[in-house]
TrEMBL record:
The lineage of its organism: Bacteria, Pseudomonadati, Thermodesulfobacteriota, Desulfobacteria, Desulfobacterales. It catalyses: L-glutamyl-[protein] + S-adenosyl-L-methionine = [protein]-L-glutamate 5-O-methyl ester + S-adenosyl-L-homocysteine. It holds the Pfam family CheR_N. Keywords: Methyltransferase, S-adenosyl-L-methionine, Transferase. This is protein-glutamate O-methyltransferase. Residues 1-277 form the CheR-type methyltransferase domain. It is an enzyme of class 2 (transferase). It comes from Desulfatibacillum aliphaticivorans. SUPFAM superfamilies: Chemotaxis receptor methyltransferase CheR, N-terminal domain, S-adenosyl-L-methionine-dependent methyltransferases. One of its GO terms (biological process) is methylation. It comes from the Bacteria. Its EC number is 2.1.1.80.
Length: 277
């Protein structure tokens, strides 16, 4: 049986994970981290936190480090999370982008920290529902995350009935196909949504990002809360590079750009618009 993670051991792993991902775990998450470390250690047949830490620190097992990062960064998300923000996107932001880009008929959106795909698929559904002429537009949604397991889940695009609870019934019928998988009823994303989305692994602290841009909208919701002020400013520097003047940035409801960057104006529901370079 693996022992309880001590405060000293917690600090070692917290520092390691912060250096590798930028995520700073709060002290209150010591027990949670201990449970997730224990799962990885059991899989490797290890019982010593110190030995496991030394193996990761030595950098001789990148696959195990990635597996641990995947376990630590598990996020709870859902379709159409923060409904008022989606209403603002559909009612104001997307129409303004379409008016501005009407000549090119092109739209680029980035879901940064897409987790298991609920956010980019929600954006794709919102676009299909809100824009009748979308079929004649070149629309691409880039969906990135540091967690490769979550990206695999998102790419498969199969969701349980519980996960579908936030999807309106008409959306479920239009955009998902019920199927049986492993004896369980699942809902598979239809190609009409898939064709707009490109999934890629990306660490937001590894700049410059391999993204050309420009992006019309960047969604980075409930991600910045894990980073220090310096790291937030670094990330914002990349967002500013990719967003043109007039581009939009969506954050989580509890997040703010106060003290981070003053080149954006708040238009409502944690949606910001870039005002200057």
């Amino acid at each position: 049986m693996i022992p309880v993670l001590s405060e000293t051991e917690f600090e070692l792993f917290r520092t390691l994970l912060q250096n590798k991902t930028g995520i700073l775990l709060k002290a209150a998450r010591r027990q949670t981290l201990g449970r997730r470390l224990a799962k990885r250690m059991e899989a490797l047949g290890m019982s010593s936190y110190t030995a496991y830490y030394r193996m990761l620190k030595a950098g001789k097992n990148d696959e195990e480090l990635r597996a641990l990062i995947n376990h630590v960064t598990i996020d709870q998300t859902s379709f159409f999370r923060a409904g008022p923000q989606f209403d603002l996107l559909a009612g104001r932001v997307i129409p303004e982008i379409m008016q501005k880009n009407y000549g090119l008929k092109q739209m680029r959106i980035w879901s940064a920290g897409c987790s298991r795909g609920h956010e980019p698929y929600s954006v794709a559904m919102m676009l299909q529902q809100a824009v009748r002429e979308l079929v004649s537009w070149d629309v691409k949604i880039l969906a990135t995350d540091i967690d490769s397991d979550s990206l695999k889940y998102a790419f498969r695009g199969r969701y349980t009935a519980n996960e579908m609870s936030h999807v309106p019934e008409d959306y479920a019928k239009r955009f998902f196909k019920p199927q049986r998988h492993g004896g369980k009823k699942l809902y598979a994303v239809k190609d009409r949504l898939r064709k707009h989305i490109l999934f890629r692994r990306l660490n937001l602290l590894e700049s410059p990002y391999p993204i050309k841009g420009p992006m019309d909208v960047i969604l980075c919701r409930n991600v910045m809360i894990y980073f220090s002020r310096t790291q937030k400013q670094q990330i914002m520097g990349e967002f500013l590079r990719l967003l043109p003047i007039g581009g939009y940035l969506c954050l989580g409801a509890s997040e703010s750009l106060i003290g981070i960057d003053d080149r954006f104006s708040l238009i409502g529901h944690a949606v910001y618009q870039k005002q200057k370079n």
